């Protein structure tokens, strides 16, 4: 089974932040904002990604949210303002999800 | 019908940011991080809240994500590190949702 995943993080130090971004990219997710990734994952990969992020961050200062969506919930997401950074995400990518 | 809503924002100026926080609080949502709210809303209130946030923010600089979850998706959310700020959210509130 696959989920549509949004992952949002707030990581203080550059090094772990870059590592998390690299990990998410390598997992096939698309960067839609500086600290926001979006994409399709199978459920076990979603769980695994949570564990991998946990290993990279400092739990005392950083936070990561991993949000899984079924198709129906996904359709009802609202993104206002600069939620999609035009420099990072193009129409082709958006058309894959919306 | 009601949804479990997570709302995450990145708003540059203090004034609109405070107004959005006040609006979310008034809507019965709980603040779980500086810029993250969580709670139960009926679907029409969820839609309305999106419109109200849009009126308050600067669409050129700010972003707001309104994420709706069914019970099943909600159960699979992963919050790592400081996703729940202990100063803002107590066990009683968390027990309402998890």
Structure explained in plain terms:
2 copies of one chain form a homodimer. In chain A, strands 2-3-1-4 form a 4-stranded antiparallel sheet. Chain A has helices at 14-26, 43-56, 71-75, 91-97; strands at 2-10, 30-33, 36-42, 63-69, 78-81. The first copy, chain A, has a single domain (2-97), classed as Alpha-Beta Plaits (2-Layer Sandwich). The first copy, chain A, is α+β, with helices and mostly antiparallel strands. In chain A, 40% of the residues lie in helices and 32% in strands. Strand 4 of chain A pairs antiparallel with strand 5 (78-81) of chain B.
Coarse shape of chain A: globular
Strand elements of chain A, count: 5
* Order of strands, widest sheet of chain A: 2-3-1-4
Count of separate structural domains of chain A? 1
């Amino acid at each position: 089974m696959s989920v549509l995943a949004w992952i949002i993080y707030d990581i203080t130090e550059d090094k772990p932040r870059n590592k998390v971004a690299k990990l998410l990219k390598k997992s096939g997710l698309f960067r839609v904002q500086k600290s926001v990734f979006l994409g399709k994952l199978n459920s076990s990969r979603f769980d695994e990604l949570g564990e991998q992020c946990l290993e990279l961050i400092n739990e005392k200062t950083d936070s990561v949210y991993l949000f899984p969506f079924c198709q129906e919930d996904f359709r009802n997401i609202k993104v206002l303002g600069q939620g999609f950074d035009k420099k990072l995400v193009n129409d082709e990518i958006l058309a894959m999800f919306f």
